[in-house]
Specification:
Layout lengths: L1 H8 L1 H16 L10 H21 L6 H10 L2 H9 L1 H14 L3 H9 L3 H11 L4 H8 L14 H13 L11 H6 L6 H7 L7
């Protein structure tokens, strides 16, 4: 029941799920050739959970709900691009898989935008709060933001990087220059532990 979900998850996380689930459902039934909606959803749930845990561990519980929402929605742009530009996006994915490079870099070169910006544009039209939009838009390039403190962007960027650490150990996605600018680079192992991940030596 809805009441049970609110009790277990809390009102804000329940609201985030109510927003996100129909979005992902819309892209089912083969609308996104070459990309698994289920895999994007599972990744997004894990990143959202990490982002919330990182926010709390960082002493910023006030941004935890926004970080969770942004984590759930941060990769919806991949589904948008795959559904609306299937041939072009297939080239992007193939290129990045062959060269083990981040999709966002080649998306700009090939498509003139990225999945992060596409999702932020969509959710901006839906009226989502600016901190959530910034976290979605810049989760691969947090240096493009002008924040000087921990924000949902920090949480989602780090959470997304943590997700890929065991899957792509040869290439870290953490922007250490950005974290150093915020004075937070030394917190990464504490955040890993908060997410149930082993610390890096």
């Amino acid at each position: 029941k809805a009441e049970d979900a609110v009790l277990v998850l809390g009102a804000e996380r329940t609201r985030a799920l109510v927003l996100a689930v129909p979005v992902f459902t819309r892209f089912e039934a083969g609308l996104c050739p070459g990309i698994s909606t289920e895999e994007v959803w599972q990744h997004s749930v894990e990143v959202a959970t990490f982002a919330r845990d990182i926010s709390i561990q960082a002493g910023a519980p006030e941004v935890a709900d926004a970080a969770f929402t942004a984590g759930l929605l941060h990769d919806v742009g991949k589904l948008l691009l795959a559904a609306n530009l299937p041939a072009e996006y297939a080239v992007v994915r193939r290129h990045c898989e062959e060269r083990c490079t981040a999709e966002s870099e080649f998306e700009w070169e090939r498509l003139g935008t990225s999945h992060a910006e596409a999702a932020a544009c969509l959710f901006g039209m839906w009226g989502l709060p600016l901190p959530v939009l910034e976290a979605i838009a810049h989760h691969h390039r947090p240096d493009l933001g002008d924040q000087t403190t921990f924000t949902p962007l920090t949480a989602v960027h780090v959470a997304n990087a943590f997700y890929y650490e065991p899957r792509q150990p040869e290439r870290s996605q953490l922007d250490l220059n950005y974290l150093n600018r915020l004075g937070l680079a030394d917190m990464c192992n504490e955040w890993r532990l908060a997410c149930g991940l082993p610390p890096l030596l």
